[in-house]
Amino acid sequence: SLAHLTTGAEVRAADRAHVFHSWSAQDAISPLPVAGAEGSYFWDYDGQRYLDFSSQLVFTNIGHQHPRVVAAVQEQAGRLCTIAPSFAVDVRAEAARLIAARTPGDLDKIFFTNGGTEAVEHAVRMAKIATGRPKVLAGYRSYHGATSGSIHLTGEPRRWGADTGMSGAVHFFAPYLYRSPFHAVDEAQECERALAHLAEVIAYEGPGTLAALIIEPVIGSAGVHVPPDGYLAGVRELCDRHGIVLIFDEVMVGFGRTGAWFASDHWGVAPDLLTFAKGVNSGYVPLGGVAIGERIGSVFAERPYPGGLTYSGHPLACAAAVATMSAMADEGVVENAARVGADVLGPELAALAERHPVVGEVRGMGAFWALELVRDRETREPLVPYAAAGAAAAPMGKIAAACTSRGLWPIAAGNRLHLAPPCNVADAEVKEGLAVLDEALSVGDGLI
Ligand code: PLP
């Protein structure tokens, strides 16, 4: 029974007694006790509600406690809670069919995992076996997961603490016009120079040593970077020229986040493998996977795939996925994300940026945006330095606290605020969040 855990203080104390938290110095944290959640809000035990502009870790694309998904999980639990992956099961087959129907190109077979990092590990394994090559290209501004392979592909600072220095990951710079590594002056030039840089990295690494290139079509955790038109097509072309398997990591941006089922749909470019998780079932039960096209699928038609997971395609997770995708389609959730981005978040964030000197750049699409915060708009000096921690990161902590104390829960990452409400967020909720953000940015203006 949970009868002894009825107050926030009790829940926090119980958490601190035995729960070991991700990414944290265990003695330095004090997690917020959450009592419940619904739609775009969650709340604590003291009656404080938070408008969830994080979608947790950018996964509750249809919000909290969607009744159709909750009912589907309950119904499946009553029917068949679990079964090993080697059996054929209706709900798993249906989840795979619905995913395959939405993924781009010829991605038609689905290997299920329990989350994003496993999807990345398996996609990379498939590419290495298919090509017989040892190395994998990934962006410096990327997050691909935190297990032994994916943490090395991850480019952002969370890699450092686990880097063994012997990984076979090779990093490159993807486009980022605001801080162009290529001194470009517009998106077209940034695109052209980023592709020239990538071509050079491939040449110097040796194309025959490169199994795969993995990229988030819209870069998520590392900054919400929307690629210039032509970039993904150029990457596809380089991969084709050199026999490199192209992996799109759509773990964060798939399933509606950018206002399309997959972010890569915006540019009409299809990969050889696509990794997904999070939004596939809004995280109600852990699920991820790899969508596999013919080029890689055919490799394992007659030869066994060397990999598997006890819970691959777990019935509860698949039931949640079927219900999520169906609800998203019936309720126009992807269209809502596109509309909210184009009509509300995009213009209103641009207006906020005009008023607040602490905002250097606004970027994003759909229900996925970032505000890059600066000390000085002219020099573009970041509000906090790259990989700042402790006291150096304090200004970001103050701005985040100005949001949370007023009931808005954004994501603070580096010198950025990421704003990722559920894809079915209502306009009134967006406006409520933007009003809080306006006040929090005034706090930020006072820090520069
Ligand atoms: N790939 C991307 C693009 C992600 O954003 C994430 C998680 O944020 C992962 C992979 C790892 O997923 P998981 O945390 O489910 O292992």
Automatic annotation (TrEMBL):
PROSITE patterns, sorted: AA_TRANSFER_CLASS_3 (PS00600)
Family: Belongs to the class-III pyridoxal-phosphate-dependent aminotransferase family.
Keywords recorded for this protein, A-Z: Aminotransferase, Pyridoxal phosphate, Transferase
InterPro entries cross-referenced by the UniProt entry: Aminotrans_3, Aminotrans_3_PPA_site, PyrdxlP-dep_Trfase, PyrdxlP-dep_Trfase_major, PyrdxlP-dep_Trfase_small
Cofactor(s) recorded in Swiss-Prot or TrEMBL: pyridoxal 5'-phosphate
GO annotation, cellular component aspect: cytosol
Pfam family, one: Aminotran_3
Protein name in the entry: Aspartate aminotransferase family protein
Superkingdom as given in the UniProt entry: Bacteria
CDD domains referenced in this protein's UniProt entry, alphabetically: OAT_like
GO MF, one example: pyridoxal phosphate binding
